[in-house]
Amino acid sequence: MAEVSYIKASRVFSGNPPVRAVDELSLDVADGEFLVLVGPSGSGKSTALRMLAGLEDVDEGAINIGGKDVTNVPPKGRDIAMVFQSYALYPHMTVAENMGFALKLRGVNKAEIKEKVAEAAKMLDLTKYLDRKPKALSGGQRQRVAMGRAIVREPSVFLMDEPLSNLDAKLRVETRANIAALQQRLGTTTIYVTHDQVEAMTMGHRVAVLKDGLLQQCDTPRALYDRPANAFVAGFIGSPAMNLKTVPLTSEGAKLDGIVVPLSRSALDAASSEQLAEVTFGIRPEALALVPSGDEGMEMTVELVEELGADALVHGAVKIGDSSERFVVRVDGRTPPSLGQNVKVVVRDATEIHLFHPESGARLEA
Amino acid sequence: MRRFLDRYWYAYAMVLPVVVVIAVLVLYPLAQGVYFTFTNINEANIANPVLDRPATFDVVGFKNYLNVLSGDQSYGAFWGTLVRTLIWTFSCVFFHYTIGLGLALLLNRQVRGRTLYRVLLILPWAVPGFISAFAWKYMFNAQYGIINQFLRSIGLPDPVWLGQSNWALVAVIIVNVWLGVPFQMVALLGGLQSIPGDLYEAAEVDGATPWQRFVHVTLPGLRSVSSTVILLGIIWTFNMFPVIYLIADKNPNTRILVTYAFERFFSGASRDYAVASTYGVLILSLLLVFASVYRRALRKQGEVW
Amino acid sequence: MTLDATSLQVVKASDARLKRTDRSRLASFGLHATLIIASFIAVFPVFWVLVTSFKPDARAVETTPKLVNESSLDNYSRILAGDKGGFLTWFGNSVLIALLTTIIAVFLAATTGYAVSRFRFPGKRGLMMSFLVVQMFPFAVLIVPLYNVLLTLGLQGNSFGLVLVYCTTAVPFCTYMLKGYFDTIPMDIDEAGRVDGLSPFGVFWRLVLPLARPGLAVTAFYAFLTAWGEVAFASAFLSAADESKTLAVGLQVFVQQNRTEWGHLAAASILVSIPAVIVFYLVQRFLVTGLASGAVKG
């Protein structure tokens, strides 16, 4: 078990211009922590993980595992185990051989390998399949073998590269919980890469959001959700995504269609100190509410209603200035408005308003 | 430099043996061969280490190339031979490819006994070349060959296949087609199997007839295999000498560039290494030009290898 | 397959359901007829040599050939007894040379193919291009310079020298083929192996080679055939002594000296073909997958 740190680590792919796939990433992961790297495709999250694994060069900066600089250490010297998206099970070996391979390479004696494999197989409910080849297993079973292969080694760090993306939706949710519980039990430092923010939020102790090779924010799921550091994180975390609109600013607050949403003093100060006439205004669908048509609020024409059971998501167009902007509102699933209906939308809770710089996207107010 | 070696040393370690073998046994002799083309080297004036005789050949500049390219009969009538080489190459590759593709298409279907058919059809590839040559030479024999026996029995004329006429060229082309079809068939069969089945289903749902599916799904799906095997086929056929040499011997009607190089090399007491090498270099240049044109044509259509 | 008029006719009225995979009887007949004719043409020359190999020399040249004509195993027994040259010695030489060529060529092609498939390194493109160019030159006209090289290396007249020469002809194509095959093995497997504690060579040896068996089989087949049937190099680079000849060389001499002994020639040919056909039979089930990936990715 060990802590992991990226120290201004970069991976630069040669080309014209060179691509900085991971750009000066600095990140400290505590011993036993479950850290999730999340971001859209091309954000450099997998590259960052592979740099830690030693499968990708570290062109600048350094990486430490357990306080030891491993920047130039080959994968086998890093005491890590990795679960691949494709699982990368060795097709010519049985499940037991797959799981025991790393130990065999280290020269562990056969009896001990057998014992450890049996133990891991029991934990993962794979005992029945130990003599099978990967080809004869279902997707979920293969995924568990890949996990087992990592567990058997008792490494100081687990690396997981989108290990659930080849499973169907139901199995994915189940396995998600299993992995989190397993990590809890083993207490091994884990770095987990995913593009799915739900996975990130539900599994990670902390979540690091990357975009274009740059770390955007690294914090607990709650903090990411409540105080996103910039407009990108705000839009990326949470489903459905936060409503993010550029709106004009008045002395009291942000001007939307028909209403002026009052803003906190600190936010207004921050905006005026930068002399902004407009801000990026963000509000989550659940912080909006529909009110009776007589009341004050933004006029919205309902274009789509997604019924989710407990909730419903109402999509509609709201006029801001000259353009029509799309908003999503989360409402009670039993009383959704109908299509084409004109409704009034209000901000339910002014403390849930997020303001960002319209150009840089950085969060306004401290 | 340290970093360079650090990063690449295992790649270089893995290719090193091949590079050494190729450099010593291919590039060095090739360079020497190219040098020979500017000399009048032959069996009489070459250094002979066994007899401890020093070399006495002279450098003659471009004389060999001029002699060969003049098309002179005594230097193998280069241009006529080139035309025959092209006929030989293109007819062989054409039949290799079309027959190979046809059989591959048949074998790619659900046919009872598919494995057996496949084994039988690949068999010509497995038989050593000189044995096949011998078999065909025997079958082509004008008097006791089974082929003429068969032609006579169904009332067709029975030519003297391997005599001094163009029938000899036809005969060696037939043999080479027989030899080369299995390779193309196997490669194309693999190519067919790599075309995803849902492409055919999509085309069928779009209302494509079997012929349209062949033209718009099968052929494009085979493009990359086809371009590779056709290029290889052309290179191999261009330089295919054992078949011709073993079946038709030194028949001028089957003479192609490479067999003539051989004739010069092996025939008589004064083995003419200089002219043989000159032919070798000319063959290499022709194929290089062809390959680069071929590549450019493919690249223009968006296919690069 | 399509529903044309003929296919509808053969379906009984009571069972008008047509499975998609059904083929009309006519199409089926055409398909099998074509395959049978093609197979016949493919096999016939070999079959005819087999038939001839049992006939006495005089019967083999009759103008109206028959399948059986005083056939016996005499030709075989005389050849194997050594009446027509040291057949068994030649056979041994050929087996040795072909096996050595196969092992060395496959090994060289595998390491090179793997490096080219997995690593990006300066000079890679040049290497691949040179493999293509190497196949364009009629190397037999380089026998003289090659002879000098082998003499300098002390390998002239030695089967190992000949094996190396064969490797240079087999390796370029084999490398292409194996590179293509290695390309189909996911990189993840290599990486999993690296993480599990293998060196780059370990990955190659313990993971990639076992997984590339079909590709290796085809490569071995190709290399074996290259060496097994070759005449020109073998006659130039092996010592002229009868006991060091390969089968191909020995038979060549035999043909030149005994132009009329068709029966014996046929028997000898069959004997020569047997090992090649055995090797072929062992690898044939891999041929399609092994060769295809090589050619597809060429």
**Order of strands across the main sheet of chain A:** 6-7-8-3-9-10
- Which whole number gives the mean pLDDT of chain C? 82
What helical percentage do the residues of chain C reach? over 70%
By CATH, the superfamily of the largest domain in chain C comes out as MetI-like
- Report the order of strands and helices of chain C: HHHHHHHHHHHHH
Instruction: Give unreliable regions of chain A as ranges.
Output: none
Structural class of chain C: mainly alpha
CATH fold description of the largest domain in chain A:
Rossmann fold
Quaternary state of this entry equals heterotrimer
Could you say what the CATH architecture of the largest domain in chain A is?
Answer: 3-Layer(aba) Sandwich
Give the overall silhouette of chain A. elongated
Mean pLDDT figure of chain A = 90
Q: What is the SS-derived class of chain A?
A: alpha+beta
Query: Count of helical segments of chain A?
Result: 9
Helix-strand string of chain A: EEEHEEEHHHEHEHEEHHEEEHEEEEEEE
Q: How would you explain this protein's 3D organization?
A:
The complex is a heterotrimer of chains A (366), B (305) and C (298). Chain A is of the alpha+beta class. Chain A folds into two domains: 4-235, Rossmann fold; 241-356, Beta Barrel (OB fold (Dihydrolipoamide Acetyltransferase, E2P)). Chain A is built from nine helices and 20 strands. In chain A, α2 crosses α3 (110-123). The model of chain A has no long low-confidence stretch (mean pLDDT 90). Chain B is mostly helical and 305 residues long. Chain B has twelve helices and no strands. Chain B has helices at 2-36, 63-69, 78-107, 114-126, 129-140, 146-153, 167-193, 197-205, 210-238, 242-248, 257-266, 273-300. The longest helix of chain B has 35 residues, at 2-36. Chain B starts with a helix and ends in a 5-residue tail after the last helix. The model of chain C is unreliable at 1-14 (pLDDT under 50). Chain C has two domains: 5-77, no CATH class; 79-297, Orthogonal Bundle (MetI-like fold), CATH 1.10.3720. Chain C contains 13 helices and no strands. Chain C is mostly helical and 298 residues long. Chains in contact: A-C, B-C.
